[in-house]
Design goal:
Helices cover 42% and strands 16% of the residues. By secondary structure, the chain is α/β, with parallel strands linked by helices. The chain contains 15 helices and eleven strands. Helix 7 packs antiparallel against helix 10, helix 8 packs antiparallel against helix 9 (298-316) and helix 8 (268-289) packs across helix 12. Residues 441-472 have low confidence and may be disordered. It is globular. The two termini are 45 Å apart. 41% of the residues are buried. The strands form two sheets. Strands 1, 2, 3, 4, 5, 6, 7, 8 and 9 form a nine-stranded mixed sheet that branches. Bound molecules: adenosine-5'-triphosphate and magnesium ion (3 copies). One magnesium ion binds at residues 172, 199, 202. One magnesium ion (MG) binds next to strand 8.
């Protein structure tokens, strides 16, 4: 049966409410009191104090639909069917309450019971951690999955661990979308990196404490932490090709298509650009709504990079005017049911994006021209490495984020001297510090320039906005 993305979110939360969970709204994308993280990247991230037992959760069972940003997936966007830099993660959590038995059974019930999502059980494959016989036995004996359909996987895939502290094995569920989506390799099976067996849900059983030296002890408080990509669930329920073909996301892609004049399906290259723009404008809209502003540091840099990368793909589609800001209304329309503050902040978000686009537009043409010239010089000399000083020039004079330059360099089959670029950046910091010292500017004393941004000043308005973003 077909379900829209918004219906699926509601269905998941209702299901876990019926199992005694307290539904909480998504936490903001900017972490509170967590200097180890730039942006929220999983449902559990804002709940760390509850997992560690440092703070009392509002209930021992909680469920959420959490806004997430994963910039680590940026290179995948538009190329794989399943990755966005922005996505929503559905999750149910237990803080020292129920454990594997209930978690696994509810995962199966939600996915296969016709009262809920009702997916074909034959297409689903669970995986467990190599040594986790307990989870294996629950899948086999309680749920009734034939042994040969349960995959045992190693630490890389199925053991969740982040330095020292609470950690534990995972059990994931893969959905077989059919051969047409496969890589064709005879080794293709659940866990393969291609898009045939799509990972939809991850159950993490935090049952150990790692002392940091590889010694694991059983935790007194055993927890459940699960995460399922809402867009991925929609891909399988709607039986569509990719995350970009899901109802609400497709409406945004269509808008991008209207504005740019590029039609989905015209060519692979323009489809990739359409998807990148769609993805990045979703991320940018939510990040700005949650208080991030474009800058050259920290999360502000993440935002700037996404916006400038999207702008460049607009150029590749032949758009020479600022256009991203025109997509925001559609992004809001598709999401405001759940995220009411988007509409309230629409004017603000639009202004931030438009200003960033206009600033970049002033220099992008000049920068692209210089880039082509520098590239030609390197090529004429038979060099395969693009100089760090050249990347610095593009950054300093034309506002090209170094990752964008690196990407363009790679598209040309060359590499970038990143260390050389970093050296130039450091030299610039030293120059800037000396200049400030010479001016006797005490306002910056105690702040190591370039490491911490005391405030992001956005001069597009009368009001100055402070983000106080700590840069990592
Ligand atoms: P993959 O192996 O496909 O990259 P993952 O193992 O990195 O996924 P987890 O860290 O286990 O993902 O996150 C839990 C769930 O969140 C995944 O099972 C998936 O449904 C969803 N998810 C993870 N990354 C993304 C993404 N970039 N875009 C959309 N959904 C995602
Ligand atoms: Mg991943
Ligand atoms: Mg995975
Ligand atoms: Mg996973």
């Amino acid at each position: 049966k077909y379900y829209g993305l918004n219906e699926l979110r509601e269905m998941f939360l209702t299901f876990f409410e019926s199992k005694g969970h307290l539904r909480l709204p998504s936490f903001p994308l900017v972490p509170e009191n967590d200097p180890s993280l730039l942006l929220i990247n999983a449902g559990m991230a804002p709940m760390k104090p509850w997992f560690k037992g440092e703070e009392e959760p509002p209930r021992k069972r909680v469920c959420t639909c959490q806004k997430c940003i994963r910039t680590g997936d940026i290179e995948n966007i538009g190329h794989t069917a399943r990755h966005g830099t922005y996505f929503e993660m559905l999750g149910n959590f237990s803080f020292g309450d129920y454990f594997k038995h209930d978690a696994i059974q509810w995962t199966w019930e939600f996915l296969t019971d016709p009262k809920w999502v009702g997916l074909e059980a034959d297409r689903l494959y669970p995986s467990v951690y190599l040594e986790d016989d307990e989870a294996f036995n629950i899948w086999r004996d309680v749920v009734g999955i034939p042994e040969d359909r349960i995959y045992r996987m190693g630490k890389e895939d199925n053991f969740w661990e982040h330095g020292s502290g609470p950690c534990g094995p995972c059990s994931e569920v893969y959905y077989d979308r059919g051969e047409a989506f496969g890589c064709g390799s005879p080794d293709c099976k659940p866990g393969c990196d291609c898009d045939r067996y799509m990972e939809v849900w991850n159950n993490v059983f935090t049952q150990f404490d790692n002392d940091g030296e590889g010694h694991y002890t059983e935790l007194a408080q055993k927890n459940i932490d699960t995460g399922m990509g809402l867009e991925r669930l929609a891909v399988v329920c709607q039986n569509v090709n990719s995350l970009f073909d899901v109802d609400t996301v497709m409406n945004i892609t269509n808008k991008v298509s209207d504005i740019t004049g590029a039609h989905y399906g015209d060519s692979e290259a323009s489809d990739v650009s359409l998807r990148i723009i769609t993805d990045h404008i979703r991320s940018a809209t939510f990040m700005i709504c949650d208080g991030v502003l474009p800058s050259n540091e920290g999360r502000g840099y993440v935002l700037r990079r996404l916006l400038r990368r999207a702008a460049r793909h607009g150029k590749l589609l032949g758009v020479n005017e600022p256009f991203l800001y025109q997509i925001i209304d559609t992004v809001i329309h598709e999401n405001e049911g759940e995220y009411k503050d988007l509409r309230q902040k629409q004017d603000y978000i639009t202004k931030v994006i438009r200003t960033e686009e206009e600033n970049f537009a002033k220099t992008i043409d000049g920068g692209m021209k210089i880039f082509s010239e520098l590239l030609a010089e390197h090529k004429a000399k038979g060099e395969t490495q693009f100089a760090g000083s050249d990347a610095f020039k593009l950054y300093d004079t034309y506002g090209f984020p170094v990752d964008l330059t690196e990407e363009m360099v790679r598209d040309e089959g060359m590499t970038l001297d990143r260390a050389g670029f970093d050296q130039e950046m450091e030299a610039q910091r030293v120059r800037a510090r000396k200049a400030r010292e010479a001016l006797g500017d005490l306002g910056w004393s105690g702040v190591e320039f370039g490491k911490e941004v005391p405030a992001t000043v956005f001069d597009g308005y009368a009001q100055t906005t402070l983000t106080g973003a700590k840069v990592l």
